[in-house]
Amino acid sequence: MRLAEHKAHSRAFQPIFDEGMTLVDETANYLDGEGRTASKALPKSVSTLYAAESMRLTTRLMQMASWLLLQRALNEGDMTRAQVESEKKKVRLNSEVETSSDANYVHLPDEFRDLVMRATLLERRIAILDRELYGVSRNIDERPIGNPVGEQINLLKTVFHR
Question: InterPro entries this protein is in (predicted)?
Answer without folding.
Answer: AraC-like_sf, DUF1465
